[in-house]
Amino acid sequence: MDIAHFLLDFILHVDQHLRTFIADHGLWVYALLFLIIFVETGVVVMPFLPGDSLLFVVGIMCGAGLMSLPLSLGLLFAAAVLGNQSNYAIGRWIGPKVFQWEQSRFFNKRAFEQAHGFYERYGGVAIVAARFMPFLRTFAPFVAGVAAMSRRKFIFYDVLGGALWIGGVILAGYFFGDIPFVKTHLDKIIWAMILIPGLVIVLGAFRAKLKTKA
User: Fold this and answer.
1) What is the pLDDT of residue 109?
2) How far apart are CA 13 and CA 4, in angstroms?
3) Which residues contact 135 (CB under 8 A, 6 or more apart)?
4) What is the reported pLDDT for 185?
5) Quick one: pLDDT band at residue 206, thresholds 50, 70, 90?
6) CA-CA distances (angstroms) from residue 104 to 97, 99, 116, 143, 191?
7) pTM of the model
8) What single-letter DSSP state applies at residue 107?
9) Where are the domains of the chain?
10) For residue 199, what pLDDT is reported?
């Protein structure tokens, strides 16, 4: 099985893979989950990892007694916050170099200055909301760093967004995972958690493009 096929199978059947991993490796599952959440939020080239569906399944596993709820919440919250901090730091390191570039057909310096103003004024909402959007949650902290959003402000909204995302999705799985409908249609729920936010992003980008043309 090649890497792409394995990743697709893991994303779509994360519940089965997680149960198998717990049975085979026990407590190492916490290290694996920490790594996945950290990489998804902290490495800008890894936006395709199954954050939402993974957290929901973790909540189901905690509800079934296969994992510890407090430990899962604490570790994955730390992974989400540290991942965003890493991504932001990379953006901050790249940002000053970008702002020194001269205006050209390939680089719009004014657009970057506007991005900085946007993140200073509205960036907090963007950081929190992006937590619940695949792809956007990987790029938002990086863009915030490039746009030179103040570190204190970023840390506050990073922690707030991380707590809402990790706590909200894991607890949803914990409290609702034992419902017969959820058990029966878990595969469809996972698909919905992947596709619906993606469609929202695509439609939003399309509407923004239409407004720009208008």
Assistant:
1) 57
2) 14
3) 47, 48, 198, 201
4) 67
5) low
6) 15, 12, 19, 20, 42
7) 0.77
8) B
9) 3-213
10) 63
